């Protein structure tokens, strides 16, 4: 499928912890570099040969990635399926402080899947490997000089690769395994939906739909715009309705926030 520019994602749904009940297929464009596979916000590479734990860490760093950390059981099962049931290294270890297991290279997650009576530090075991499908996807501590295959894990930048759902008026900030959307200054919304707070003002004869004026107004008016459906509607125009202050108040009072736009010669101001 890679030669055609597509990849196939397979996701197993579990009725109990290990019993697959259905499989969903999705065909998507390949978004990780050749040799790497995408899963839930990350790209993964699995070695063909075994290495000791330290060498595995080094090889992953050379690829600007980390020896795999595990966030949840879904990822735990996915990683071990990549090794076809064989034992494989994880980035979990207690090399710094005995009994205090952490993920190498500041990996995240509090998930663990220790096998029964593990970890036991038998013969100075400071590194961790996954036992594979045969042993219910559980983990065991082993000596770091053992030789196992390994998987490297790299964050995919959804912002850079245009794989996010941020609105066109929002900025996208990449996070490890995810991203955040935030509407740009002057545009209310949650980042996934942003809108113009000056809707309706574009019909002003004075502003003449000038983007510079409207952009400044959008930022200034956003605190009083209550929802995406809010719309500015002209209630008074001096050249049509008259210049009397009483006319202005009779037409615009008690109708919510108002903005006044005035032009004197080449100058435009208001409040």
Automatic annotation (TrEMBL):
PROSITE patterns: ASX_HYDROXYL, C_TYPE_LECTIN_1, C_TYPE_LECTIN_2, EGF_3, EGF_CA, TLDC. The keyword Repeat applies. The keyword Flavoprotein does not apply. It holds the Pfam family Lectin_C. It comes from the Eukaryota. One of its GO terms (molecular function) is calcium ion binding. InterPro entries: C-type_lectin-like (IPR001304), C-type_lectin-like/link_sf (IPR016186), C-type_lectin/snaclec_domain (IPR050111), C-type_lectin_CS (IPR018378), CTDL_fold (IPR016187), EGF (IPR000742), EGF-like_Ca-bd_dom (IPR001881), EGF-type_Asp/Asn_hydroxyl_site (IPR000152). Residues 155-193 form the EGF-like domain. Keywords: Disulfide bond, EGF-like domain, Repeat, Signal. Residues 39-153 form the C-type lectin domain. Residues 205-271 form the TLDc domain. This is Aggrecan core protein. It comes from Stylophora pistillata.
């Amino acid at each position: 499928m890679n030669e055609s520019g597509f990849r196939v994602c397979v996701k197993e749904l579990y009725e109990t912890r290990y019993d697959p009940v259905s499989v969903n297929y999705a065909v998507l464009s390949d978004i990780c570099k050749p040799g790497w596979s995408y899963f839930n916000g990350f790209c993964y590479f699995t070695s063909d040969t075994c290495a000791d734990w330290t060498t595995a860490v080094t090889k992953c760093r050379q690829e600007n990635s980390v020896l795999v950390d595990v966030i949840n059981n879904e990822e735990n099962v996915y990683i071990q399926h990549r090794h076809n049931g064989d034992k494989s290294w994880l980035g979990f270890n207690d090399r710094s402080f005995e009994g205090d297991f952490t993920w190498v290279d500041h990996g995240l997650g509090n998930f663990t899947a220790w096998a029964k009576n593990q970890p036991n530090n038998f013969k100075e075991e400071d590194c961790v490997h996954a036992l594979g499908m045969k042993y219910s996807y559980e983990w065991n501590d082993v000596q770091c000089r053992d030789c196992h295959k390994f998987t490297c894990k790299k964050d995919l930048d959804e912002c850079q690769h245009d794989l996010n759902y941020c609105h066109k008026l929002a900025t996208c900030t990449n996070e490890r395994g995810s991203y955040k959307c935030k509407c740009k200054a002057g545009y209310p919304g949650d980042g996934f939906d942003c809108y113009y707070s000056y809707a309706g003002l574009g019909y002003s004869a004075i502003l003449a739909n000038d983007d510079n004026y409207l952009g400044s107004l959008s930022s200034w008016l956003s605190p009083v715009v209550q929802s995406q459906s809010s719309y500015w509607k002209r209630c008074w125009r001096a050249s049509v309705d008259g210049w009397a202050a009483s006319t202005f108040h009779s037409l615009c009072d008690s109708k919510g926030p108002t903005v006044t736009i005035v032009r004197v010669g080449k100058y435009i101001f208001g409040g």
